[in-house]
């Protein structure tokens, strides 16, 4: 058993007969009344996100997890196949456990949290950003350069991302995996 002072981003807890991962939290100490912790929880089974507030000092039921590095091999419908980089064992993870599955390309190294009690994968944490090649985008129109003008582009994984007008097909771009935003063009 843990308490609200142990809450941190990425902690997995049992809550409302399900397993949730904490994706955001904020300790609040108002001028009047007791302190509390406002959290945003994501269900590892359904992917549903809920907001919850815990009173300070409240007991929470945390789950022991192991984290290992895995390599993304391929996707099959709703399932994604990964291989442990240490012992080469393969596991299958449902699409709901991955935050931005459209940004994951084959060979990508990710961190997977596995429940120590039953060996089931709980969540997949991608790197902070990935480098992807633009496979399709319309050419930028000259004179259409208002501030922060963007156009849609399709990257090698099939995801659609808004990019600046100067990006062309074949360019490699860095994409933020948390928000799915364009960050910068990568020069070779």
Distance between the termini: 50 Å
Number of strands: 16
Task: Estimate nothing, just give the exact number of structural domains.
Answer: 3
Structural class: mainly beta
Q: Determine the mean pLDDT.
A: 85
Report the β-strand fraction as a percent range: over 45%
What's the total helix number?
0
- In the CATH hierarchy, the third-tier topology of the largest domain is known as SH3 type barrels
Question: Which architecture name of the largest domain does CATH use?
Answer: Roll
What oligomeric state do these chains adopt?
Answer: single chain
Write the element-wise H/E pattern from the N-terminal end onward: EEEEEEEEEEEEEEEE
Helix content: under 10%
Strand order within the widest beta sheet: 1-6-2-3-4-5
Name of the level-1 CATH class of the largest domain: Mainly Beta
Which residue ranges are poorly predicted, with pLDDT under 50 across at least 5 consecutive positions? none
The whole-angstrom Rg is 20 Å
Shape: flat
Task: Provide a compact summary of the structure.
This protein has strands at residues 2-3, 12-15, 18-28, 36-43, 49-55, 59-62, 65-76, 79-84, 90-94, 109-115, 121-125, 129-137, 150-155, 160-164, 172-176, 182-186.
